[in-house]
Amino acid sequence: MIFDAIMTGFVGVMTPLNLILVAAGTAIGLFVGAMPGLSATMAIALLLPLTFPLPTASGLSLLASLYMGAMYGGSIAAILLRTPGTPAAAATVLDGYPMAQKGLAGKALGVSLVASFIGGLISSIALLTVAPILGQVALQFGPVELFAVAVLGLTIIASLSRGSTILGLLSGSIGVLLAMVGMDNITGTPRFTFGNINLFGGISFIVALIGLFSIPQAIRLIENKAVAERKTVVNSITDKMLPTWLEFRSMLTTIIRSSFIGIFTGIIPGTGGDTACWFGYNEAKRFSKEKDKFGTGHPEGVAAAEAANNAVVGGSLIPTISLGIPGSSSTAVLMGGLMVHGVMPGPTLMTEYADITYTLIWAVMLANFAVLGVGLLLTRMSIHVTRIKDTIMAPLIIVLCVIGSFSINNNIFDVVLMLGFGLLGYAMDRLKIPTAPLVVGLILGNLFNSSLHQSLLISHGSWMIFLTSPISAVLLAVALLSILQDTPVFRWLIRALKAAVGKGNKASGATE
Amino acid sequence: MKKLVPYILFAVAVGVLGIIFYVDTLDMSKAAYQLPRLLIGLVMGLSVLMIIERVILLRKPAPAAAQPGTGDSNPAAPPEQRSLLRIGVFVALLVAYVMTIKPLGYFISTPLFLCAALYFLRATRLLWIVLIAVSFTVFVYLLFVLFLNLPVPMGLME
User: Fold this and answer.
1) Lowest mean pLDDT among A146-160, A379-393, B19-33, B62-76
2) Which residue of A has its CA nearest to B42?
3) Which comes out higher in pLDDT, residue B65 or A220?
């Protein structure tokens, strides 16, 4: 049955329209990634409304390829401008820019391209093999376990997001609370609609995404005149892009190691390309016999960072697809793409919606080949994109936000709602409150609501049911641990434990 | 204390929202209000904890600055460099755009917004501003309406 679904997904992706859209999505992603200040998440959110009229497979192919393209595109700005196009390309600056200064900008970009391709491909294979297995495990889960999974997903992303655990939890809780707006599916009671008919269907997830990820980014682009008037540091790419076989062979071990680092980093909710690139880079340096060369324009440094950040894509989709818990804001937006086409998050993604889910997985796989092809064709051209002023981009982004949110339901209320979420996102950004947990909370709100209702019905209203189920108890204990690890109580406990162990060792040493 | 004010304002806003939502739950059945009330309590509690945490952090000495060029892609500039006026006018233009797009329609409000915003931001020369505004308006219309069959507000042109 799984094999059938895998093949259906493959056939669903391999159509001429999809292949064109994958190429287009990769090109858009590459250009968006190349512009500092614009993120993959924003681009996916802005393109979401455009996928409405498209067939599901085509829409998902467009979004997945855009994500992959932006991951590689981030390295273009890092290498040419010394400013990472996306946070995931931050470590690429260390060796990429010195290579460009030596006149090896093309080589640096070529190494980045090949490493991104291999990292992305390995992570896609991991996604295709691990997600179905995890999905089978998740199918054994009832409402009690599902509630615990949702709690765990939210607490982990809250505790690992930028800022403190308290800020992350606050953001996530606001997200779940806002997801309560609208008609309650179980009781049929309208909640927090205040008589407004536009709110009866709940807050449109896509509208919230566009507002939260695009408006703050547009405002940030213009808020500082010094940043807005950025200059290109390297003006042209004159050398050959692709590395020679010998150069490639010397980097292969690093690329493969970084790919696995990226996959594992991606699987953990709340950590993404920005963590993986540093992890991959540091490990490459640790294992290298030429440690001194790192930071001076060493191709292996570029390869390590880029393989890791592209491998995050497949890794972060593993919990998203198998458990229905998005591990990052980008995968949350991709999940939004699934929801646009009527697919609800949860373990049923691998059964009821298997054809669509496998289509997404194959689209991610296919996008890697598109990154390689489009990257070779368009990287030299992307240097011109990096010259576009932020002050021009910001108003254009606003127009896309407004028209995109209007087109969802042909309703001006959605535009006002989008604006509200945009201003909320900007305020949260200024206060360093992470927005990713809010988005995840919005997605998981329905799952929270239905699984809690069903669990309490089973237990006749007793909350102890979450502790009597062993899986649920373990998941909730881990969730509690993820919250407590950032508190002074936990640090005090660890110190006390270490002291106790130390005393025990001394005592046993004295008696021997 | 100055750094604490935005957090206090955010907490107050969250608190007000919580109270409004709580009042709304008074007419609901237990099954309908159970989770929302739990969340309201959680959100309000976490807002208080946020303030306490900020007070503790403000008392601690500031950590050393991060390495340049290795952090976020769009690093926050020092507060003195940020132009509140620049942000305020841009947001005001955005709000005006949202408010006028329905009555005036896409073809009037969009080029007007783009021209005003690009001119205010001194993005480029006036001729280029008009060219960018008109061509982008046409491009988005072609993409959304003609290519993807998605609606745009027509306003006066309806």
Assistant:
1) B62-76
2) A173
3) A220
Cross-chain Cβ contact B34/A452 below 8 Å = yes
pLDDT at A512 over 50: no
User: Distance between terminal CA atoms of chain A?
Assistant: 62
CA-based nearest residue to A457, from A153, A183, A186: A186
ipTM of the complex: 0.87
- Judged by CB atoms closer than 8 Å, whether chains meet at B150 and A50 is answered as yes
Are the beta carbons of B73 and A90 separated by less than 8 Å? yes
Task: Supply the pLDDT for residue B12.
Answer: 95
Question: So where are chain B's domains?
Answer: 5-59, 83-157
Question: Is A341 inside any structural domain?
Answer: yes
Chain A residues close to B74, C-beta within 8 Å: 36-37, 220-221, 227
Chain B residues in contact with A89 (beta carbon < 8 A): 73
Task: Give the mean pLDDT of chain B.
Answer: 85
Q: Write out the E strands in A90-236.
A: 182-183, 190-191
Residue B150, token pair as written in the block:
């998605």
B92 chain-A contacts, CB cut-off 8 A? none
Residue pLDDT, tens place only, B101-138: 999 999 999 999 999 999 999 888 999 999 999 999 99
When pLDDT is cut at 50, 70 and 90, the band that residue B17 belongs to is: very high
* CB count in 10 Å sphere of residue B60: 7
pLDDT of residue B73: 42
Q: Which of A151, A162, A186, A399 is the best mutation test for B, with the most CBs of B within 10 A? A: A399
Among A435, A432, A407, CA closest to A207: A407
pLDDT digits (tens, 9 = 90+) for B75-107: 444 544 557 888 999 999 999 999 999 999 999
**How far apart are alpha carbons B18 and A194 in whole angstroms?**
14
The pair of three-digit structure tokens given for residue A484, joined into one six-digit string: 């407590």
Token pair, residue A460, equals 């006749």
Residue of B8, B35, B128 to mutate for A, most A C-beta atoms under 10 A: B35
Burial code of A10-35, b = ≥16 C-beta within 10 A, e = fewer? bebbeeeebbebbbbbbbbbbbbbbb
In a domain, A500, yes or no: no
What pLDDT score does B64 carry?
54
Structure tokens belonging to residue A303: 């390869």
The answer to whether residue A407 neighbours chain B at the CB level (below 8 Å) is yes
More confident residue, A360 or B8: B8
Q: Do B143 and A50 touch (CB under 8 A)?
A: yes
* DSSP label at residue A88: G
Report CA A465 to chain centroid distance, whole Å: 33
Cβ A173–B42 below 8 Å, yes or no? yes
Q: Extract the tokens encoding A209.
A: 């995404």
Residue type, A38: L
Whole domain around residue A113: which residue ranges? 2-488
Contact state of B6 with A431 under an 8 Å Cβ cutoff: yes
Q: Could you give the number of structural domains in chain A?
A: 1
Residue A387 located in a structural domain: yes
Task: Compare CB distances from B32 to A93, A189, A433 and report the shortest one's residue.
Answer: A189
Size of interface A-B (CB pairs under 8 A): 184
Neighboring chain A residues of B124 at a CB cutoff of 8 Å: 389, 392
Nearest CA in chain B to A84: B73
pLDDT of B123 reads 87
Nearest to B39 among A49, A177, A398 (CB): A177
How many residues does the structure list for chain B?
Answer: 158
Considering only CA atoms, which of A443, A441, A453 is closest in space to residue A144?
A453
Confidence of residue A422 (pLDDT cuts 50, 70, 90): very high
Q: Does residue A497 form part of some domain?
A: no
